[in-house]
Every structure is written in structure tokens, then in C-alpha cells.
Amino acid sequence: MGAWARFRRNRLALIGLALIVVLAISAALAPWLAPYDPARQSLIEKRAKPGAKYLLGADEFGRDILSRVIYGSRVALLVGVLSVTIALVGGLLMGTTAGYAGGWFDAVLMRGIDILLAFPYLLLALAIVAVLGPGALNTTIAVGIWGVPAVTRIVRGSVLALRETEYVGAARALGAPAPALLRRHILPNIVPSLVVYATLFMANAILLEAALSFLGLGVQPPTASWGLMVSTGRDVLLVAPHVATVPGLAIMVAVLAFNLVGDGLRDALDPRLRGAV
Amino acid sequence: MRTFASRPLIGLLVLGLAVALVPSADAQKRGGTLTIVRPTDPVSLDPNLETTAPGAWVYFNMLEGLLTLDEKMQVKPALATAYEVMSPTKVRFKLRSGVKFHDGTPFNAEAVKFTFDRALKGTPPARWASLAGSLSHAEVVDDLTVDVVTKEPYGPILRTLAMYCMGIVSPTAVQKMGADFSRAPVGTGPFKFVEWKTNTHVIIERNPDYWGDKALVDRVIFKVVPEEGARMIALQTGDADMVLFPSPAQLPTLRKDSKFTVHETTGIRVVFAGLHAGQPPLDDVRVRSALLHAVDRQAILDNIMEGSAGPARGVLAPGVFGYKDMQLESRYPFDRSRAKALLTQAGWTPGPDGIMQKGGQRLSLSWLAARGRYPKDGEITEAIQAMFKEVGVEARVQVLEWAAVFQQVRGNPLNHHMFTLGWVTSNADADYSLFALFHSKQVPPSGWNTSRYANARVDALVEQARRSLNQTEREKLYGEVQDILAKEMVWIPVYTTKEIIATRASVKGFHIHPVEYNLALGKTWLDK
Amino acid sequence: MLTFVVRRLLLAVPVLLGVVFVVMLTIDLLPGDAVTLMLGEHATQDAVGKLREHLGLDQPFLVRYLDYVGRLARGDLGRSIQQNRPVASELADTWPATLQLTVAALLIAAAVGMAAGVASAVWPNSLFDDLARLGSLFGLSMPIFWTGLVLIVIFSLWLNWLPVGGAGSLPHLVLPAVTLALPSVAMIARMTRSAVLDVLREDYVRTARAKGVSEVWVLGRHALRNAFIPILTLIGLQSGQLMGGAVLTETVFAWPGLGRLMVKAIFARDYILLQGAVLVFALAFVVINLLVDLSYGLLDPRVGRQG
Fold first, then answer.
1. Distance from B404 to chain A by nearest Cα, in Å?
2. What pLDDT digit, counting tens, does each position of B90-130 carry?
3. What pTM did the predictor assign?
4. Cβ contact, residue pair C141, A196, below 8 Å
């Protein structure tokens, strides 16, 4: 049974996929979907409660929250997808080479990773912004780079363990070349853990962007980012909870979607069921 | 000067009269602990090392200067009882007798000289040395008489000496404690130091040997609670009696609730959007005026500041000596059509995307701002950005951390057209602001003329006013400066801060001061 | 084993020196510097210059770096630029609080997370599993300052069970530790579920089951032992994240910890204080990684000794 067929049978995974499609459509068609210009202010209507005029209410500047949430999906997708890609590519490269090669190469690389991990994240973000300038893209790069050490460690850990399993040992004894080993035997076993970690990382990425945006390192006004909306809305949490909660719910739905799909992928890609050993 | 043989007798008599004249205090209760919550911990409790609010709030109650500023912004005696101008650069002060430091050593002219030398001649000089203008040193005349000397005639001398950071310190304590003094200062004030647990709390207690009206509460605890929401909750639950920097959105509810009291008064800080007048297109006064007309300041005050700030009527705050109402409301009322008309006059026409254009160039301004440095600085920037768009001006806002903003604003050249800043007139004297902000030679990095404003007449006026000791004359000169500035505005003043403190109703006798650093707790008592 | 530990600790030294180097370099490259920020808008150029000279901050980078490392070798962490207070004292004031918070959060996260993850794996797609997964998603997605404030509103304001903030006693620790632990609980639960599920499907587990070995035995001996490796890696990583990410929690709950101190130092460009804090974190991280790697060897003898 093919992976895609297995995936299709998983109802929750399909719901997740549907949500992601909604997210993508929202991002692509934002100018047509949003009822108002997301930067249009109406100070007198600040913090308006959800109602006929503003379906999800208005923020502290009287801007329509629904429109800003729709436009915010662009930043969310950018941050989520791009940062995870950077983290995965970097982490896979370093983790597999370190885990497989072993020896002094592994030791040096891992010490380098340790340095990066011990480095305060805020400082890393500030440095990147100082060099590249503020804005969503550069914050995304910072988030991605931050994720590389973690992925490297996970990959390396699994590679180390798998390297010594019987069937890999057997394959090596039979003279299989390293790249083939990696591709055929080791990587497929890592992918499920990675997929799960990646989807969780995307949640973290959006939340990290929120913290950074709040400190002025992310999107610049008047761009909308869900994270920034939650951050600035927390000042009025006790008087107008919808300002922070609505974008927070948007974050949750997006994260939920990625997680459901991630789970579905993990189930679908399980090599044990594929029959290849 | 008179001899002081009968001083003790006179002193007793005066004291007796004072006690008799004090309004019946039987309503006041003695004792209790006042708990105050605020966002940050002090860096130090020594004015030499700390001039910002977190430290000042605490040491203001432990250290006293020669003079002080009361809530009506009038200079009043503190450790000095009388003064006499000896020459344009020398003022003689008679010191209060019978005053002791918290460590028991006597307060005298030596202590004053020690404090000034330590600050002005020390290595490195004190933080407050930069605020002291032409102050040079103090000379001991006799035990209770001291001469304060300035490098050149300095008009603001009295107000400078009345600043919150001019507290006299105990020479014995400084010499004994060395660097530890900054964590446990010894002064003459109504409270003395008890303990400081970093990033948690500072505790001070009543000084029973205080020379004046003794404090009414036993102890004051200053707690650190960074999150605004948590501070307000602490006030509600009673974990805190007083909140510094309360949440503006909750003030309307608190004002109506009889369990709480909201104390407020106009402060002395003006927050503004500065314009780089040395660079096109803002070197054209018509464009600057158009920008002023484009901003609905009242809407910002009502909806963003929500009553936590007052209108900015000029570049100075009322309460500052030399302040003049620059009539901004009538000169530059919110009027979009007037703004557009002025832009058209200056040669700008609407482009295809709605943004004004001239000679192929779009009216696009780059704007530097921080978030959280001044109340709602990021928010007012964003609001004005949207208002500018309505008249066809595009503002590209860059919100950066304060360190980055500070460096760029303090640098030369300035690569932005606009910046959001605040300026507090630390010694409540117009010289402090008008000289540093608008004198043509005070362009960064030597001064703070970030707008690159240059007007020869204004230069001459502020120079003259600085050197004059005639306060009436100075007031007139500053009035003229503000008249000229009003016609050539290089700022968009947005608001004047309000000092607001929220307390539980059980806190009585507290009077809020326009200068945010002057948190006087000597007369506060708890009705519990 | 001993040589392994010693070797790793020795290897940690270049890491620590490397971190100090990179941190110092980064602070230098960032706009703004400690003295101008400290003295503020109202200081004269002259005062700034004098203070910088007095503190030795006008020296070239390498001079300052070597000076710092030299003093470090003698056990001297220097004095903070802002307060001229020994960094060691500043750290001593704050690191116990962070340690308390991190350990409490880690314990909660590991215990609750693993328990929920195992239960989910043993009864996959049951109501419990669905609820647990939904719950952990919720915990993962909401920003810490939001959950923190909500918890304060519920437990301090409405129910008045727990104090609002600050540190001091066990009740003060509850809310911050729970808030900090929530995202990690979710991560660990999910990772545990996934890893245990994977192992439960392994051939040798199926074999054991087929041989009639009891379910509990299968679970304990085989499944958990081998599932533990990725879980352990994650726990090791989470502790690093917990330490660093405690900043927001510390802010919301006024918890006087190292995270807040570090952020303050970064914004004030007080690199001497910052380096002290970073070293503490880095050292803790090295130790945790060492423990995790050691347990790899304990849990899976096939892995043997690495590094």
C-alpha cells in the first residue's frame, strides 16, 4: 500500500491538510478575502468588540482583526516553512555527517554545535538584525539558524543508534557504500522523528517570531503578524481579551494543522510498513 | 551674618511653633509597611551612579539636597535655610543646624563640599555631573555656611541644586564603605536604608532622628514586578499598596472604584516626533507645517494615551520655568485639507499610488522609533504613520531596540527623516531643554539638536538667558525663543507625560509630584 | 567511563572560551555600547569618554578578550559595567532561582509528558489519546506570556489560591513552573508517543509478544528502553530551551532569575555581566549533554562509547 493512500485514510491528517490549504489560500488571496485594509486605522473604534462592522473585533488602533489575521497568514507561512527548512537542511547535513563519520570530526562539529546552543538566542537574533536589518525575512533566518543545533543533535543521536543495528551492520559487512546506507537504511528511520519534531518546531518558530517582533526585530509597522498581535494585545488582556486571543487562536489552528499533517506523514512513511529493509 | 550663640534656644522656639502650627494630626495613623511595585530594579542607590527613576524613587527619600522642588514646582529650602548671591558665579548658602546623617555623623559644609567634589571631580565623574551645567565646586566658609561656585554665570543654579539627584551624602560612610555605598547609601532623609535584594526588593525604614516631620509609616518595600498586568493584579489583591506606572487602560475603572485612588498631575517630559530639518524634504517649513496639520493629536491622546498623558502645548512642559504655551492647537489644528494645500504649495502633487510626488521623487520619509522607551512610543508612531498616509505622505517606520535607535539618533549624520523621542527637563528650567535641543552648535554628538535646527536669533537668546541671574529677564527671553520656534516647528510634539500613581484607598497623605523622580513618602500614612 | 567524562569536560573548555569569544565579538558588532546607554541622553561626550577610559572599555577587542580570559582563569568573573558589582554576586543572586524554576519545570514536563505519551502509545486513537494530543497542542501553541497571565487571572485573582508573583516559597513556584513546563510537556508527550509507538512495532517486540511475554514486560524491557534515546535527547534539549526560554516566564511572574538578567545585560550591552551569565548556562548545558550521552551508553549497550 502506497504512502499517499495510507495518508488519505487518516481523517485527522486530511483535516490538517485542509487547514493548511485554507492557510495557503488565505495567504495568496489576502487582498481579495480581507474585508478591510489591514493598515486602516480608526482610533475612535479602538478595541471594538466583535460585531457586525468588525467580525472579529478591532485592535488598539481600530484596525479590523479579521483582515489582519488573514494578512498575518502570509508571515506565519513564511516564518513556519522557511525557518523549518533552514533548520532541517542544516541539521540533517551536520547530523548525518557527524553521526556517521564519528571520531574527531564528530567531536569538533559537536563542540561547535555546543557553542551555538550555549549562545543566547536573543543575541543571535539581534546580531542578524544588526547585519541584515529588521524585517520578517531576517527574523525567519534567525529562527532557522537557531533550530539547526537541535535538529543536528536529534539526527546525530538516531544515526549513532542506527549505525550499530544488526541490519545496518550486515549491510556494511556486505560492502554497501555509505551514501546508499544512509539513504536506504538510516534516513528512513530518522524521518518519522524528524517529521514530528519539525511540525513542533514550526509552532515554536511562530512563537519565537512573536517575541522578536515585539522587541522590534520582526515585522515592521504596519505589517500584521499573528505573533506581534498577541504580544501587543496582552497589555489589554484584562479589558479586551479578543485582541490577543483571536490571533492566538489563529496560531493554534495553524500549529494544529501542521501537527496533524505531521502525524499523518509519520504514519504513512513508516518504513516497517513499506516492507523495505 | 548674625552670630549663632542663641541658636539652640531659637531653634527650640521655632520647633515649638512649628509643632503647634502643624494641622491636627490625630487623624493620621502611625506605623505599617507601604508596599510599592514597579517595573525594574535600580542600578544603584547612589546618585553618582544612578540618575534614572528606579534608583531615584528610592534614594529621594534617603538623601536630601540643599534645596528642593515642591509639588507646585517652587524652589524650597531643604538642608539649606537661606541663600545670598555673592557674585555672578558664587551663591552662599546657610545650612540647617542640628542635622545628622543616618550614621550619626553631623551634616555640615564639609559634607556638602565632599559630595560635590566626589561627584564633579571624581574619576569618573558622577552621572549627575552632566546635568549640573556650569556647577564647579563648593567652598566651606564655616561649619554651617557653604559657597556654591559656578564656572560662569549660571541662571538655572537654584533649580539645578534642587534636583532630585543632588542629595548630600555622609563623607564618613562613603569613606568607610567604598563601593558598597552604592548599595546602601547614608543620607539625612526621613527614611534610611535597610536591605536590597537584587531584582526582588529594596526596603527602607523610618528615620526616628529626622530633623523635620518624621515619617509616618514604619517601612517601605519597593518590589520589582516587570509585567504590567501582574502589577495591577497585585494592587487588586492588596499584595501592593501603590503601583508606579499603572496600566492606562485600567485607569478609568480604578478612578470609579472607591477602594482605589488614582493620583495624577502633569509631568515635565514631552514626547515628540522629531523632524530632520537639515535635509530635504523636511527643510521646507511648509512641508513640516503640513505634517503638523496631518496629525490628530487629540485622537492620539484620547485613544492611545487614554487620559494617561496631557496635550503637548509646546516643546516644554508646563511647570518648567520659562514655559510658554506655544498655541499649537490654534496654529496647527488637525486639518487634512490644509495639510494637502501646504504640500501643493511646496510643489508636491498626488502620485498614482496616492503618495505625493515632486520631480519624480515620492514623499517617502524614513522614521526611526523604539518600542517601550517612552510610554506608547511605538504606538503613536504607528498611528501617525497611518495619519500621514491620509495626506499622501509615506512613512517607512523602523522599530528597533533602544540601543540601536539611540546610537543612530546620537550620531552624525542622521540617516532618517524622523525619529520618535522624549525629552525630560531634568532641572525643570527651560535652559536645560532649549539650549541642548535648539542651539545650532548642539548638533549631535555634542548636544541633542537632533533636528539640526539653526537660527541665529535663537542661539543668541538662549546664550543670554543662560548667563543671566535675573529670573524675570530669563523668562522673557525664553518666551521669545518659543515664539520663534512656533513658526518654524521642527518637532511634532505629541504629548506631555502625566505622572500617574495608583494606590489603594488606605494610602493617605500622598502627594504626587510633577517630577517623576520626586517620590516623596515622608507624609504618607496607611489607614489600615 | 572516567576517562570519557574527563575528556568531555576538558573538551568543554574550548567550547566555553569559544562562546565567550563569540559573545564578546557580537556585542562589539551591535550598535550602541554600554557606557553611552548607561549615561543616557543627558550625559556629555566628555563624561562618556572619561568613563569608558576608566572602565578600560576603549581598549581593542583582543586586549579585552585576553584580559577577560586571564581573569577567568583566576576565577574572577569581573564586575558588571552597569553597577560595578562583582558579576559573581549578581549570578549568585539569580542562578538559584533559575535552577529552581528550570528543575521544577523539567520534572513536571518529563513526568507528565512521558506518562501521557506512554499512555497514548499503549491506547492509540482512544479518547484519552485524542484528548491528550489536543491538550498538548493547546499547550504548545499559546505564547507563554498569554498562558501565564491567564493562569494568574484564574489562580490569583479569581480563586486567590496562589500568589501573584515574585519568589519565596513553594506556592510562588507553582504557576511559573507549570507555565514554563507546558510547551515541554506537549513536546515530550508527543515525542514519547511517537518513539514508543515506533518501538512497539519493531520486530523483536512482535517476536516477544508472539512468544507470549506479558505486555508489561514487553513495554518495560524493550519498548521503553529503546524509545528512551530520542526522548532523552529531547529532554536534554528541552532543558537548554527551558533555561534560555525562561525569560518570558520570569518576566510575567517577576521571577528573579538568570534569564531576565541576561536580557537586561544584552540590551544594556553589559558584556561582562552577560558573559558571566552565558558561562553559567553553557556550563550547565555541557553537564546536561554529558549526562545525556552517558545515559545513551547505559541504555543501549550497542551504542558504546562515543566522543
1. 9
2. 999 999 999 999 999 999 999 999 999 999 888 777 888 87
3. 0.81
4. no
